[in-house]
Each structure stands twice: as C-alpha cells, then as structure tokens.
C-alpha cells in the first residue's frame, strides 16, 4: 500500500463532501488504480521534451511503462492538478510524474539522478518492470 501512503497525504474529504471533493476523490481513485495496477506509470503531456526524455530512458532500459498523456484524457486537467499537489510546492512542473511499484518517484530530475547513482535499475527490478 505504498501508493496510499504517498497519495493519502492529501485530504480527500468526509462524508459531507462538496462537488470539488467528489471530483478529487474520483481523480484519486483513477490515479491509484493506474499506479497500483502497473509496475511503472508515467504521466505526461504530449510534446513535452522532459516527458520524452523520461519515456526514452525507460524504454532504453527495457521497461514498457504505462504512459498517460494528460492532454489527451478527459480528466487530464484534474489529474494534472492532483499530481501538482503530490509533487509539492517546490516542484516547478507536475509532469512528467513517474510512479514505480506504486510509489511516486518524482519527475525527470529524480529519475535521472536515480539512473546516474545506480538505484533506478534495482528499483525497476523490485517493481517487476525488469527481469534481467
């Protein structure tokens, strides 16, 4: 339940929820379902060069991530807002947003740092995204 620890830091409302809270609950459920059902999920926007870098890095390592292009999804703006909240105040961009093994890893900077310091491949293996 690693993803729930990452995502539950955001208040999702009570039994007396407003429409905005209901929408956020639906977005939370959508994101949670994607990241718990796939070894690697990358939320992107088509045409974003940093999103392209993340996808190419993962593909070059032999990983077939689930890619969600938010500008092509009906709920894309809501998911983007949700990812912004997960990324936190210090992050400039909400995408690319990478989840590995149900855990929010971060964006391009974090993924590249993990690759350079040698922790990315073991992380991907532990998540079942790589077998070698």
From TrEMBL:
<comment type="similarity">
    <text>Belongs to the glutaredoxin family. CC-type subfamily.</text>
</comment>
<dbReference type="InterPro" id="IPR014025">
    <property type="entry name" value="Glutaredoxin_subgr"/>
</dbReference>
<dbReference type="InterPro" id="IPR036249">
    <property type="entry name" value="Thioredoxin-like_sf"/>
</dbReference>
<protein>
    <submittedName>
        <fullName>Uncharacterized protein</fullName>
    </submittedName>
</protein>
<dbReference type="Pfam" id="PF00462">
    <property type="entry name" value="Glutaredoxin"/>
</dbReference>
<dbReference type="InterPro" id="IPR002109">
    <property type="entry name" value="Glutaredoxin"/>
</dbReference>
<keyword id="KW-0963">Cytoplasm</keyword>
<keyword id="KW-0676">Redox-active center</keyword>
<dbReference type="GO" id="GO:0005737">
    <property type="term" value="C:cytoplasm"/>
</dbReference>
<dbReference type="InterPro" id="IPR011905">
    <property type="entry name" value="GlrX-like_pln_2"/>
</dbReference>
